[in-house]
Amino acid sequence: MVEIDGRTAAQGEDSERLAFAAVYEAEHARMVRLARMMVGSPSVAEELAHDSFVRLHGAWDRVENPGAFVRTILVNLCRTWLTRSAREDVRPIADDRMELPADLDETWAALCRLPDRYRIVLALRFYDDLAEADIATIVGCRVGTVRSQIHRGLAQLRKELS
Amino acid sequence: MTIDIEERLRATYVAVAEQTRVTPVDPAWAATDQWDNSRGLDDARRRRRWPTLAAAAAVVLVVAGVALVNRPSAGPAASTIDELRAAVDRAALSLIPEGFGLVEIESLDDGGRLVFTDGERQLIVQTIIDAPVPAGDPVEVRGLAGRVRRDGDTTVLAWVERPGVTVEVIGVGEWTTGELIDIGNDVTMMTTPSWDLLTENSGFVEARLLEPGIEVAEYDPDFPGEGTSTLERRLVGSVQSGLGLEIGLTSGSISGFSTTYIGRTGDDTYVFVVSGDVHRVDLDLVGEVIASFEPVPDPASPDVRVASIDLGSLVPPRADGAASGVGVLARLLREDGTLISEEPIS
Fold first, then answer.
1. Which of A53, A109, B186, B280 is spaced 20 to 30 Å from A90 by Cα?
2. ipTM passes above 0.85
3. DSSP helix/strand/coil, B305
């Protein structure tokens, strides 16, 4: 028997199930929220986060770093959704009602107007607190590109808020 | 007034996160039979079917949502998850029998139908809403009670997947009941969006040939880059098992298309966009697509000329474990077949 996160199971595949469950419990809520920072809509975020875990689930045997893996998938799914929804003009970004202090509400609205590429790297950097090198790995570009996008994103945000 | 933009941004994220309700889900769903269903059954079977699995990986990506939507309910609330579960309504295969290719996919008012063939035998997987299970010998499939009936060279395996949803696996030609049950066990139920994606792309995960004049909204392999380009035609990423699968034309070989490279479009993720004529697009034995064309300058490195693009269904593992094993890998090749670069796309 093995024990993971308070659960026990037989060795072998059951332990894999528990390991997956542990990762899910540890990361799921954060992934939903990270997705929301990228796509805006809470319901879409939840759907994309779950889809990311489904893909993690399917690739479990081959994944060495589940956290990095699920973030990579999540970012790709968010990018795909943003691209597709932009074409269909159905983006629900910032259309839900939250009760935020005025300055934060203004910032959220400005964030939602940013180009997708800026919003994605900003969320990874300032919500998920990832290092630029990790962000580069996840979005599949050079560190310099990430740095540049963060800089431009912040600059555009600052301009909108000033 | 000077704004500490980073501080305000972090505060905004914290506030938004606090107001983002996350539907609680019991991760124990991972410990259900769906673990096996979505992961290719036991090791021996997985090894035996590996070539097919590799070829069908793209389909698995599309249909993987079944593991999510089929898991046990976490609560009574009407949530996105519940809605997704309710939307699961059409059957597909998570593993396509070796040697078979998808030749027809059809959405019906009361279900959907997939037709596979290996040139001799035919395999049909169809979902029918509110249809009775035909009479036949009792069998067990997917842990459910099913019926199998043979009529001439046609064998029909049917069962009620859930109330109101009947699935039929029909073998035309020489099929044993055991073979059909194995296939039935590999059936996975798809959500409507996933099914639509499959039908829109003729069974490919991301293959689409579009008409001229479509603008590429983003064009830069180093996401998140910028740039636009207009192409005459485009073939969006691809992979599906089976030779003879259509990509606009029959026989797995097409010619005369203009386009290429990998860009990002306004309506989908990545596309090939080649500015020269594509001589041909071949599907190899594991469902990879190789597009060959007159060598054109690599937009990222104009002194390098790209002669073909090879789309693989699996992304090789990265050293850090990120993005291993999923998505599509596009390799840009020179005329002599040597690698210029490879770009994971998904």
1. A53
2. yes
3. strand
